[in-house]
TrEMBL record:
CDD domains (UniProt xref): CAP_ED
Domain Cyclic nucleotide-binding as annotated: residue spans: 15-129
Any Pfam family matching the protein: cNMP_binding
Single annotated GO MF: DNA binding
InterPro entries in the cross-refs: cNMP-bd_dom, cNMP-bd_dom_sf, Env_Response_Regulators, HTH_CRP, RmlC-like_jellyroll, WH-like_DNA-bd_sf, WH_DNA-bd_sf
SUPFAM superfamilies listed in its UniProt record: cAMP-binding domain-like, Winged helix' DNA-binding domain
Protein origin, superkingdom: Bacteria
Name of the protein in its database record: Crp-like helix-turn-helix domain-containing protein
Entry keywords, A to Z: DNA-binding, Transcription, Transcription regulation
Cytoplasm found in the keyword field: no
GO cellular component: cytosol
Organism encoding this protein: Alkalibacter saccharofermentans DSM 14828
PANTHER family linked: CRP FAMILY TRANSCRIPTIONAL REGULATORY PROTEIN, HTH-TYPE TRANSCRIPTIONAL REGULATOR ARCR
């Protein structure tokens, strides 16, 4: 980690007016796999990622995880719940060691008083993220069931070394299809040698084949 002041090189999509305020705030270090905030918590602020990588994800009531975005150096995250005042609808976790700066409401209100047009820039940033999430929903809604299931298995396997403990019912809930459809698709994948199915457990046998299938 370094103590280099934040400059235009760091901030990829934000106005120069934020440079000074970011440089006056304390940088907090987060270790790899450390949580930044959790789904359901009150939003005390939003965050600027000075270095490292952060993933933002949601958990279903059944405990299933869906990745929404990965943020890199220079990105701002966690601002949606901060602005609307509702509990956070997602969680954020460090993928690598990170340097993070938190902005609270008083910081932003002072800045908007001095630079009212700056609020428009934040609206633009939020709009881009809404569009991104809309594309995610479209993909989940209209992508063929077998490709949605393949993509879901690949997501789960990323942190589980290819061994996934999950029921067919839970897969169906996660991707929005019936258990019968899940059973049929998993049987097809197993016949091709891409996976091996056991009781409430799936082994990924051919990661590349599944990945290529989702891209066709």
């Amino acid at each position: 980690m370094d103590n280099i002041p934040i400059t235009q090189e760091h901030i990829l999509d934000l106005p120069e007016e934020l440079y000074e305020i970011f440089n006056t705030k304390q940088v907090k270090l987060y270790n790899k796999h450390q949580m930044v905030y959790r789904q359901g918590e009150a939003a005390e602020g939003f965050y600027f990622l000075k270095s490292g990588k952060i993933k933002v994800f949601v958990n279903s009531p059944e405990g299933l995880e869906k990745n929404l975005a990965v943020y890199n150096r220079g990105d701002v995250f966690g601002e949606a719940s901060f602005f609307d005042g509702y509990p956070r609808i997602s969680s954020a976790k460090a993928i690598t060691d990170c340097e993070i700066i938190m902005m609270d409401k008083s910081d932003l209100l002072d800045l908007f008083k001095k630079k009212p047009l700056l609020a428009l820039k934040f609206i633009e940033t939020l709009s881009k993220k809404v569009r991104m999430l809309s594309n995610e929903i479209d993909s989940m809604s209209f992508l063929a069931a077998d490709k949605r299931i393949a993509g879901f298995l690949l997501e789960l396997s990323q942190s589980l070394n290819g061994e996934i403990e999950i029921s067919q019912e839970d897969i169906g809930v996660a991707v929005g299809v019936s258990r019968v459809t899940v059973s049929r698709v998993l049987g097809s994948f197993a016949a091709k040698g891409w996976i091996k199915t056991m009781y409430k457990k799936i082994l990924i046998m051919d990661h590349d084949a599944l990945l290529n299938f989702t891209r066709t």
